[in-house]
Every structure is written in structure tokens, then in C-alpha cells.
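Good morning N.,

You mentioned wanting to compare the apo and holo forms, so I went ahead and generated the holo version with phenylalanine. This is what I fed in:
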Amino acid sequence: MNDLDELVAQAGRDFAAAAAPAALEDAKARFLGKSGQLTELLKGMAALPHEEKKTRGAEINQAKQAIEAALAARRQALADAELEAQLKAEALDVTLPGRQRGAGGLHPVSRTLERMEGIFGSMGFEVADGPEIETDWMSFTALNNPENHPARSMQDTFYVDMKDAEGRWYNLRPHTSPMQVRYARAHAAKYAAELAAGQAMPEIRVIAPGRTYRVDSDATHSPMFHQCEGLWIGANVSFKDLKSVLTDFFRRFFESDDLVLRFRPSFFPFTEPSAEVDIAFESGPLKGKWLEVGGCGQVHPNVVRNFGLDAEQWIGFAFGLGPDRLTMLRYGVNDLRQFYDGDLRFLSQFR
Ligand code: PHE
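and this is what came out, ligand included:
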């Protein structure tokens, strides 16, 4: 083997040993670079006698071509290997089942609230929204529930360890009734101006659905639950109107004309007279059973005064309904806690 064959073989081994493009370029420089071994051989030709130059030159050229060919082949091999590795790393298994975007849906209680808003909306009720962390004054005092009065313990209230600027404790509202006060107070000045301008007596017709909280937990009570407050007061809104609004509401909600209402005398500090509302179906699976669905009554004059309105002029009723209960009845669910366990096997049935 002459020196050139040896050089070509050496280059072949060095190129093969280069595992990455950068190492290959280093190896190339050792043979073909400015002071590479082959380049040095070409430079050395100057010293050769004329007749030798030709044969030696041709041999060196051949060796150079062989080395360049080996380099090109190795470059290609490295590029192929890199592409191969990349394809492998980014491989998609098209036979996998695929990630699905599950179809979401409204929570059954949200469905009920929307349904209630729709039905009451069609009867001219506005929808109002308010804070779940309330002051003691809004939750109780303004609703004719004096401090230290035993009626306050009708609800097992969650108190919050925080007072407002006037030193009133906050609580997680135990009912949506404070929304009567908030809504009326927010609009009282406007009504006064309308009346002063000689306009017809205005009225308030509003519902306030939302979350409420009590220290209570069993199959039919959850510490977080929902209520839907209703308030309709004006010049002469009577118990008769209350009865027709609620009858209409429940018949439409349950899509049943075979539904009757019963008003059972009761007590709430903020209404007088007060009643519990029961419904019964005259047909269907729940036939003949009285089911309690809310409380109601004529708004107490003290409460009307706390609205900032004239209790001689404004008369009407309020009610509070239990959307969780209505959802249970509508769908035949017997444990309220299922609504709040977050078990998708249960919840997805309502999608
Ligand atoms: N706030 C009462 C309760 O939570 C229900 C109610 C509302 C009663 C409005 C009368 C009028 O029990």
C-alpha cells in the first residue's frame, strides 16, 4: 500500500469515526484543509522533477477525489441518521384512540335557574344578582329581624370573622332575601323622583336567584344551596297576585296543569302574613304528596321602610323558592348531595 492509499484509508476511518457533522468537518480539515495532509502533499510537488510531477499529480488528485467522495458519503449518512432520529422522536401513532374534547353541559341546578329566569322573565320579572358575603344588617336587621331576636336562629348562619366600616359582622347569606333590600334601596331614589314628577306609581318586580349558605348537611340539605328570591310590590299588589304568579310558575316549571298549591300559615319576620308554599300533583309518580317548595308572604311594613320606600304606598309580596329542591323533583333525584359531589357519571346525565 503506498502513502496515498494509506491516506485515503485513514480518511475513511476518521470520517466513519465522526459521529456528528461538527466532528466530520474537523476530520475533513485534517485532510483537505489549508494545512491538511493532502494539501501538504500537493505543496510538496513543487520540489519534484518535471517528469514525476505528472504521475504524482494524477495520483494525488485521485486520492483527493476518493477522500472527497468518502466525505460526501459520510455527510449524507449523518444527515440521514439525523432525519431518521427526528422522525422517530416525533412519530405519531395514528392508531391511538385520539384525545377527545368531552362535550360539557350545564349543571342541572343551573338549568333550573335558567328555567326559572325564563318563566319569571315572561311574567315581567327582572333578574338581579348580589353578593354572597353579606352584612348582618342586610341578612337580618333590615329584614325586620332585630339583633338578639330568637328568629335569627331559624337559620344556622355561617358568620365571617370580618366587620364592615360600621362595625357590622359579615355572614355568608343564609337566604336571598337581602336582595329584596339591596334591589329596592338601589332604586328607591329613582322611584321617588318619578313620583315627584307626577308619573304613575312605579312597581318592583324582580327575582334574585343565587347561592346561599347554612350550617346544614344531609340528604336534603347542603351547606351551600340555592334560593330564588322574588319581590313584587307597588300600588296594590295582593296575595291574590302572589297566588296566581306562583301557580302559573309551578305549572309551567313542571309542565303540568294537574298541579295545585297550598299556602300553609307560617312565620317569617319580614312578611306578615307569612306562608309556606306546598305543591301537589294530581297525577303522575308524585300524585297526592304535598311537597314544600318555598316560603312567602306580604312584605312587612318595617321592611318596606328599610327599602327606603313609603310603607303606606308600597304594598306587595315576597317569596323564596328552593331551586335545588325543584331540580330534585323535576329529575327524580333523591339525594341533594349528588349535585355537589362533582361526579361526572351523575352530572353528565343532564347534558
Ligand atoms: N327567606 C326565607 C327563607 O329562607 C324564605 C322567604 C322569602 C319567605 C321571602 C318569605 C318571603 O326561609
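The chain has two domains: 3-89, 108-350.

Happy to go through it together on a call whenever suits you.

Best,
F.
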